[in-house]
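Hello, quick one for you while I still have it in my head. I'm working through a protein record and want to make sense of it properly. Would you mind checking whether the tokens look sensible for this chain? I owe you a coffee for this, so here goes:
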Amino acid sequence: MTNLYAPDAFIKDKVEALAQQLGLDLPHQEQWNFIQSAESLDLQAAPGSGKTSLIGLKLALLGQAWASPTRGICVLSHTNTAKDEITHRLTATPAGRRLLQYPHFIGTIQAFTNTFLALPALRSRGIEVQTVDDQAYADEALRLLERHPRFRKLNTALGHRTNGPALVAEARYVCDAGDLVATGPDGTPPFKASSDSGQQFAALKEVLTERGVFRYHDMFALAEHHLFQHPQLALAAAHRFPFVLLDEMQDTSDLQQRLLDKVFGPPGAVVQRVGDVNQRIFADAPDAAQPSSFPLPQAAQLPVSRRFGSKIAALASDLTVHRRQRIDGAGHEGTVALLVFDDDTVAEVVPAFERMAAATVPRQLLLDNPPRVLGARLTRGSAKAFPQSLSCYVPGFTSTPVQTTGSLITTTRAAQAQRQSGDNHAAITLLWNAIRDVARLASSGGLPPLRRLDRDPATAGGRARLLLHDLLTSPLDSHVEWAVLTARLLRLLPDLTQSPLKGVARLADPLAHIPYIAQPVAVLETPADADQGVVASVAGSIQSAKGETHAATLILECLERSGKKHDVHEVLGLLSRQQDASKALLTVQRAAQLVFVGATRPTHLLAFAAHRTRAEPHIEAITARGWSVHDIHSLKAMPI
């Protein structure tokens, strides 16, 4: 590795100089151990430990010292949000910005899989990808099933099954012992391969493949199949990327992990995996069974959180389900509170929390970062239990619907932001793929991939490239300017698709202009007679708050998905009995996992809301932990 970057990349003086430039402190030896490590490792990082800042610092140091013009650093994350956070931090220094260009790669695991494995595999078969999207795939598959006479027997057979439509809409490829097999959503074929229905099921999947329509899952199976056929590709990938950093490793699925093991398993590549397994909230299984499961037993740790103090740290430590970790709180010594309510005071919980936040958190902090109200469930289900969800506490609350109107302008704004961060290729690709999705609504002819667009300004491809440039550089505030751009697109589409537009009315919604609204959130209304100094809270799901830092957080007791237990009540039971969360029932573990994520967000105030009948048995033990307990009934009209 030393021939790839300068051997003094991580010496103390250089680390301290760049850390000071970025405004980072490195008071703990564990931080230095990670920064200076040049070997493969796993790092289990507690919430608020500064993991993302350390990753940014380490990558900037590598960018500063990197010497090879053809071999690079590969940085992979689970989500675009995590990738964007890393990219944003790298733009802070010239050395970091170097990593945004060839030969380096920064992106999601999905993007890496598509770029280096799945797309080359499909191109070798002469297949041009039209879309990789689960919903688009489902729509196309069901249309094909209904309209094509070739699949009549399959359609009839599926009509006798309650999950018939889902079997086709969610059909996926699986790489089984080197064979690419069409399966249902559970990973097994729904019919015998030799039956008429089985043959038609496989044929329908193949037709969609030839049309270039895929699910996200398909791309991993295609990549795995390509690796099986060409095992030398793993060696080539390890050579191209001798240093690999995987962020948010806890959310990597078994399928993704298996593929990454095959790609970067060969000796030679340094693979450093970073995450917090106790924030793994997207997996149902208690633990993945693979030998490479994150984190490995000998993993390094970052146990010190600078986000919160000892009270929240002690609570969080007791809720570490997947891997027991004693978290040390080095932040502000905040307040932990329990708000106890009755059936008739549910609607008073959030106002009481807002008054408590106003009394305990500096006002400027609340203005910069309004109090957050979180629930594991946003809206009510069919169960009779009460309260069930965030909407039970906040009358009139509804979750934000999926945005369809103005979908192209929304994507264009996201692409402009990517371009401004330095990732021009990703911005153009994102925007062109969105235009291809729009065109598919009103044209029987598909648009070609970006790389196939002609560059001659006199051709349709050249005019498309000019339009892409103008979309990425033009102000989008005026509906008049947007109308000019979309009119150019509508004139261009027939030439690009070589077919007339049909059903142009379908494009009205996706091409509509909508004003820019920065990060729309559900802000709860503050009553007209609210106490002076109260800052209105923002409501949302615990899942959506992952990775955030709040000044004050309220976790509302909600019905967990079995419909039989309330999550906060189960967590109070764990804490009052001092029970090992990893040994609790699976339903209780799931509740603890979610509450752990929500409870590790705030810096100053963490509050829980629980019904009196469920809270009272635990109040004595909770008080002994240093929590404050408040009865909503007696506080309805009183400042806290």
About this structure: The CA atoms of residues 503 and 596 lie 49 Å apart. Residues 424-442 form the longest helix (19 residues).
